[in-house]
Design a protein that fits this description.
Length: 341
């Protein structure tokens, strides 16, 4: 038996030497140590030996079996390590190589650009910036602005109601109330933000942006409003842009005016102009002196303080500045359109 084991060991060694691939080593393992392998066969022979030889034979078989097992396992481990190293070096990534897809850099949305421009103008005139919630209560959006329930002026703005008392704000004017409730006059504030109305056509979108502006102090007059808005519109559209004030109605201002600028598309020269419809004028914002009832709801003394307020639509201004004739283009996420600006 000892001689056979010696021969088996020699055979194993030469076979192992020739097996460099992992598969070959694994099949050697099956051949020697598998359930039907050479060692299993040897162990089966033990009962056929003379009883006094069985113990020594069993021991010798097991010692050699363990030795072969260890050698096979260590060879498999060495091969696995080498394979892993080869894999790693062949798969190495050069992080300094340029990417295959050119990544184009993002840019600001045209309404953001206009908003920034408007904010810059008013910051330069000493105004502060305030924000208010987009989910509003009926009180801030309507009641405190002198639009009681059942007032026909509610029809002017198609509202998205959340429940009886809550809605998506239809304009930025409620920010006037939030600011005045929390700070005493004098105030000079603009409030930019998103607003919502049930509206959709070439000049209306269900979500759009407004900038509210208001100033409250002793002795503020309509002349201050006219002066400020004329200065602002001429900074935005050019020094020579004509500006006119037309009487209008808003429940929260008295008197109220809508403000038009001379058509920036046809410069008042084209009677067939699609944008100003041949009138030569474009409506750009609503404004007026703050109504005493609004001051009442925030506990301001309207015998001591006066103020003006105005509200303008950002998308409309972007349309005029960039000559765009459909407001919905701003929100269709068409990159060919958006990357022009
Ligand atoms: C208001 O919303 C008033 N809160 C403005 C105001 C403030 C008046 C302070 C007086 C004092 P109006 O509903 O007219 O007013 O809207 C103001 C501007 O928002 C419009 O001139 C227009 O430019 C823009 N606008 C209105 N509806 C839409 C819409 N669906 N899509 C895009 N822009 C709109």
């Amino acid at each position: 038996m000892i001689a056979r084991l010696q021969a088996l060991e020699d055979e194993f060694k030469s076979e192992l030497e020739e097996s460099s691939a992992k598969d070959a080593v694994l099949s050697l393992k099956t051949k020697y140590l598998g359930r039907k392998g050479l060692f299993a066969a040897l162990l089966k022979e033990i009962p056929t030996l003379a009883p006094e030889d069985r113990g020594a034979a069993g021991k010798a078989i097991n010692i050699l079996k363990r030795k072969i097992e260890e050698e096979l396992d260590s060879r498999i481990e060495t091969i696995s390590k080498t394979e892993r190293l080869q894999e790693l070096s062949s798969e190495s990534i050069d992080v300094t190589l340029p990417g295959r897809i050119a990544v184009s850099s993002g840019r600001l949305h045209p309404t953001t650009m206009i908003m920034d421009e408007i904010e810059d103008i008013f910051l330069g005139l000493g105004f502060d910036i305030a924000e208010g919630p987009e989910l509003e209560s009926d009180y801030y959006n309507f009641e405190a602005l002198n639009i009681p329930k059942d007032h026909p002026a509610r029809e002017m703005q198609d509202t998205f109601y959340i429940d009886e008392e809550h809605l998506l704000r239809t304009h930025t004017s409620p920010v006037q109330i939030h600011v005045m409730e929390n700070s005493p006059p004098p105030l000079r504030v603009i409030a930019p933000g998103a607003v919502y109305r049930r509206d959709s056509d070439v000049t209306h979108t269900p979500m759009f942006h407004q900038v509210e502006g208001f100033m409250v102090d002793r002795g503020v007059t309509f002349a201050d409003l006219k002066g400020l808005l004329t200065l602002f519109l001429q900074r935005l559209f050019g020094k020579k842009t004509p500006v006119r004030f037309r009487p209008s109605f808003f429940p929260f201002t008295e008197p109220s005016a809508e403000v038009d600028i001379g058509c920036v598309i046809c410069r008042s020269k084209d009677s067939a102009c699609r944008v100003c419809k041949g009138t030569g004028w474009l409506e750009i914002l609503g404004s007026g002196l703050i109504h005493p009832r609004v001051f009442e709801s925030v506990n301001y003394d309207s015998t001591e303080f006066t103020g003006f307020a105005f509200g303008l639509g950002i998308e409309r201004i972007a349309m005029l500045k960039y000559g765009i004739d459909d407001i919905r283009l701003f929100y269709e996420n068409d990159l060919d359109f958006l990357t022009q600006f």
